[in-house]
Amino acid sequence: MAVIAKVSTGLSGEYFVAAELYRRGWLVGITVGNAKAVDILAEKDGLNISIQVKAIYKRKNIGWPLMTEQIKDGCFYIFVNLNADKMAMPDYFIATSEEVRGKIKQYATRGIVDLSTLNNAQFLNNWSKLG
User: Within a 10 A sphere around the Cβ of 101, how many other Cβ atoms?
Assistant: First the structure.
């Protein structure tokens, strides 16, 4: 059951991000697991971007698992808190690959991007960062 919840959380995050991008005028393609390091390809006014989405179900999870070696140069990372515990709309934290590298707490066997390090105006719902 935990694996199903993890997959559902990830897919939910991808679909929420895709919907938000589409609402903002982007053309969106979801890779649905077919591209290891890219979840969404988006285009707007001739600008093409790659996006990796990481989602958590609720704030209690405190962060998103991500290893430093998984960071793809030139890719945007959108961290989603689905806010299921508050029954509120999701929060989106938008970062460049360079910004994400500086936020990962790397341990021997895992890494994590802590929610508290992204919870500010530089990242929270900063869709303008995409271009």
Answer: 15
- CA 111 centroid distance within chain: 15
Domain range annotation of the chain: 2-130
Fold of 2-130: Trna Endonuclease; Chain: A, domain 1 (3.40.1350)
Per-position pLDDT tens, the chain of length 131? 454 455 588 899 999 999 999 999 999 999 986 567 799 999 999 999 999 999 998 777 678 999 998 899 999 999 999 998 888 899 999 999 999 999 999 998 899 999 999 989 999 999 999 98
Q: How far apart are CA 24 and CA 43, in angstroms?
A: 11
pTM comes to: 0.90
